[in-house]
Amino acid sequence: LPNNILEDLKLKKTEFGKISGREGNTPVMKDIFKASIDKAKKALEGKNLSEDLATDIGVSAVAFSVLKTERIKDAIFSLEQAISFDGNSSVYIQYSYVRLKSIINKAKHLLNGPCNIELLTEKEETELLILLDEFPAVLKEALAQHETFYVTRYALDLAALVNKFYNNLRVVSDNEEMTKARLALCIVSAEILAKAMTIVGV
């Protein structure tokens, strides 16, 4: 690193809790990773996806299950929860992101010209817009507190609202202007989810 950057860097000692299983025992990390990867492989059986993808999902699931807990608290690791597609896991966030990208890719031919976000007045839309606007503040707080918990919880909340949005509202419709506005909301949501996942390494 350049000297001027090194001079500005400040190290801070932080405290962390410990990881334990639901039975209260402290498992060996390599066993946790292996079990998580095996679980991911089983979940992806018959989906014609690479084994490397299962490994990535399994490893990120373990990392996320730790990072979503405040660092000074002990993390209780649950394999079933870590590989769940139903929420509170990295898999749930990744699934939400993939669904967004699928919607965007199928309708990308409709993305021409400006869109009117003032059309987004449904509850699901306004809730999503408000949360998206909070992302910079969340990052600032995470940096100030040296705490990834803020980012992981934000990503889970965003994924939940994203699912509520595209499950309750039709993104692509005969209304061209509404379609463009909702597609724009999908694009921004996908970008923020991707940034949050990158920050926490999943």
What structural category do the secondary elements indicate? mainly alpha
Q: What's the order of the H and E elements?
A: HEHHEHHHHHH
Q: How many DSSP E strands?
A: 2
**Largest sheet features:** 2 strands, parallel
Cα-to-Cα separation, first versus last residue: 25 Å
Strand order of the largest sheet: 1-2
Instruction: Report the average pLDDT across residues.
Output: 78
Share of β-strand residues = under 5%
Written description of the protein model:
This protein is mainly alpha-helical and 202 residues long. Helix content is 62%, strand content 3%. The chain has 9 helices and 2 strands. It has helices spanning 3-8, 29-43, 51-67, 79-82, 90-106, 123-133, 135-145, 149-168, 176-200; strands spanning 19-21, 75-77. A two-stranded parallel sheet has the order 1-2. Helix 6 runs antiparallel to helix 8 and helix 6 packs parallel to helix 9 (176-200). The longest helix is centred in the last third of the chain and has 25 residues, at 176-200. The protein is globular. The two termini are 25 Å apart. Residues 1-19 have low confidence and may be disordered.
Topology of helices and strands:
Elements (H helix, E strand, L loop, with lengths): L2 H6 L10 E3 L7 H15 L7 H17 L7 E3 L1 H4 L7 H17 L16 H11 L1 H11 L3 H20 L7 H25 L2
Parallel strand pairs: 1-2
Helix pairs in contact: 2-3, 5-8, 5-9, 6-8, 6-9, 7-8, 8-9
